[in-house]
Amino acid sequence: MPVKPQMGRTTADTQGDVVVFLIGMRINHFWAVHRWLPVFIAMPMMLRELGKDRSLGLLNHVLGTANPRTYFVTQYWESKEKLLTYAAAPGRRHQPWWARLNRYARRSGGHVGLWHETYVVPAGSFETIYFDMPPHGLAKAHGVRPLREGVQAQDRLAV
Question: pTM above 0.85?
């Protein structure tokens, strides 16, 4: 069911720091399906687990592709502590999959590339604006509020 756009200019209703985690893969050799497919299917399993238990700290995620070879997930987390706790939690999907993916990567002969980046962005160091959009990205993670008239990007960054 499509989400209805919020008309007008809005911004993410964040409080404090923002944690953004980017993770992705690059298929270096399409013909080596047995090397990249396990990597490709690992992330949806973890996202389902995180979606079922909101106390783990994942607020929202957005799937993306840069080209036919590169796939990534932008994740918005409640805190860096919750992100790190999930990554190391015994009994959760991340730890065994990460060990398995490391084995695949070592044996892959360069068939698949992996990457991730973590950003803890202090309050006042980021800015968001959405125009006639349903909640997206950071706004979907933290909620949305109307943008005050006359407030410019430099004002929002100075908060």
Answer: yes
